[in-house]
UniProtKB/TrEMBL annotation:
Binding site for NADPH: N57
One annotated GO molecular function: pyrroline-5-carboxylate reductase activity
Domain named Pyrroline-5-carboxylate reductase catalytic N-terminal: residues: 6-100
Catalytic reaction equation(s): L-proline + NAD(+) = (S)-1-pyrroline-5-carboxylate + NADH + 2 H(+); L-proline + NADP(+) = (S)-1-pyrroline-5-carboxylate + NADPH + 2 H(+)
Protein name listed in UniProt: Pyrroline-5-carboxylate reductase
């Protein structure tokens, strides 16, 4: 993989995170180039990671084996149209990290028959603790799948889905998911403060508890239901709290939340594809 040239179109937070993760993993920075019209951003990337930079997108992808489209969804059509001729000529692997844009729309903008992998990373990727869902289009070879996975794995866990439609529920789960946990943490922190803890103590206890629970879930072979049962003593405080949460139909509420987010993801894909 280290011999492949990777061009990033756009140098926002997610692109910077991927570049940082790749370099930290030992990827040759001279095999990475990022394009951005902002000279200060280019200078910062070159200084931080030792990569190559370019002001012009076409110059950046001229020799690239992989092109990572790391721009906002609203401008992806314009970017794809401007790169289409060059991509048809050089036939690189194209990886999109633009949320909500379907492969059919990108293929149309790029002129078709492009080896395209659509991905959905989430914001913890900026800390190399992300979760990324990937879907490979028909023209993607096994070696290109491996290459795409290696690049995205630089910022965390990766999982493939065989049906592109599943990207919408993946977006609802892992893409939007960090906000759900932040809301739960916010609610716990507020409740603790209302019951007498100082804001600082409530915040630290909440964060550390969330971190500890996540580590237990990662490092244990047991599923969440078994872990919950193991930490719940009959007749104890945890059991009482869980009974109240169950009475509030928490499971149904999360089911409705994810269904709503999935539907909105589908709606946004329609809207963005028509722009």
């Amino acid at each position: 993989m280290n011999s492949k040239s990777i061009a990033f179109i756009g140098s926002g937070n997610m692109a910077t995170s991927l570049i940082g993760g790749l370099v930290a993993d030992g990827y040759n920075p001279k095999q990475i180039i990022a394009s951005d019209p902002d000279s200060e951003k280019r200078a910062d990337l070159a200084a931080r990671f030792g990569i190559l930079t370019a002001e012009d997108n076409l110059a950046a992808i001229a020799q690239a084996d992989v092109v990572v489209l790391a721009v906002k969804p609203q401008v992806l059509e314009q970017i794809c149209l401007s790169l289409a001729q060059s991509i048809r000529q050089t036939q690189p692997l194209v990886i999109s990290i633009a949320a909500g844009i379907r492969e059919s729309d990108m293929q149309h903008w790029l002129g078709g028959n492009v080896a395209l992998v659509r991905t959905m990373p989430n914001t913890p990727a900026m800390l190399q603790a992300g979760a990324t869902v990937l879907h490979a289009g028909k023209g993607v070879s096994e070696s290109q799948r491996d290459l795409a996975e290696s690049i995205l794995r630089a910022v965390g866990l990766t999982r493939w889905v065989n049906d592109e439609k599943l990207m919408d529920i993946a977006t609802a789960l892992s893409g939007s998911g960090p906000a759900y946990f932040f809301l739960v943490m916010e609610a716990m922190e507020t409740a603790a403060i209302e019951n007498g803890l100082t804001p600082e103590t409530a915040r630290l206890l909440t964060i550390q508890t969330a971190l500890g629970a996540a580590r237990m879930a990662i490092e244990s072979s047991d599923g969440p239901a078994t872990l919950r049962q193991k930490v719940t003593s009959p007749g104890g405080t945890t059991e009482r709290a869980l009974e109240i949460l169950e009475q509030g139909d928490l499971r149904a509420l999360f089911a409705k939340a994810l269904a709503g987010a999935r539907k909105r993801s589908e709606e946004l894909s329609e809207i963005l594809g028509k722009q």
